[in-house]
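User: I'm writing a short report section on ligand binding and want a predicted complex to refer to. Could you take this sequence and TLP and write out the structure as tokens? A short remark afterwards would be nice.
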Amino acid sequence: MIDLRSDTVTRPTERMRRAMAEAIVGDDVFREDPTVNRLESQAAAQFEKPAALFVPSGSMGNLIAICCHTERGQEVICERRSHVYHHEMASMAAIAGALPRVVESPDGILSWQAIERAIQPKLDFNAWTGLVTLENTSNLTGGTIYPTEVVRAICSSARDRGIPVHLDGARIFNAAVALGQTVADISRGCDSVSFCLSKGLGAPVGSLLLGSSEFIQRARRVRKMLGGGMRQVGVLAAAGLVALEESPGRLHIDHENARLLAEGIASVRGLQIDAAKVVTNILIFNTVSTDAYTFFGRLLEQGVMALPLDATTVRMVTHCDVARKDIEVAIEAIGKAAARGNT
Ligand code: TLP
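Assistant: Sure. The structure tokens for the complex follow:
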């Protein structure tokens, strides 16, 4: 199987498995796991933020951030296709008590102008704006990237209005590699950042939440409240440390593979994609007249897995467990599946 459903499907490398087996561990709820402590301080240093917290998932990292930044009954400004709005089980409403204020922006990239229009006036009969969330790269718009000056402008204008900014940086390393900038540079000014070890970086489990020391102290309590306090979790942090060290340097390969795949798809009759817009590891294409679920079934028969998003849209994601030769095989399979149409 060539599994292009997500970059979450990767298996840990040999080095990760060895590091996991040899990890020195302790009870992390007592803050006594030296491997977790090392991962948190390394991530904080890399992002140039005062503190970091290891959390089980990206979803939990985002939810903790929303809980810490907002009061119940406040609004959270987010893009229409953002993960916090679409794919987190409505947790910001169900658990944090926040109301998403959805804004649509080209390619999923919010601007300060669009955000400013969505900020609620502080009247006694409406919900006030408690937080702005950004997503870099933006998953459901095809791995698009925030220009760093846009992030800076949003953060400084939001600060002037007293509104914090949380960055869902599940794939921030992909953005950094594509921009040729550091993760610290592209997230500077954001009050909090979450990023995933378990996506492009290839670790089996885990994300980090970063911010000020006071923010992380509160985040630690909210993590426990959500049942996310973990014990001898250095076995997972050990894989995360290897991921941080070995993976960013190879992400450009995933980006090249995604572009190659997009160019292949662009040349298939009946499929539509703007290959020039594929700049990281995610590509979303239109199956035009073929039903995307039928197309997915045809592809599966040939050993290629993709993720249908709706009746005419399919997502593919490249990662460390697919090589260039797999992409070539996938392009051939895609051509055959498209040629069969709905039959
Ligand atoms: N995204 C997953 C699915 O949930 C869609 C994927 O396959 O892409 N932020 C962003 C931008 C994400 O893409 C994801 C996962 C998360 C947060 C949540 O991470 P996890 O799965 O660790 O909770």
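A remark for your report: Residues 251-266 form the longest helix (16 residues). The chain has 14 helices and twelve strands.
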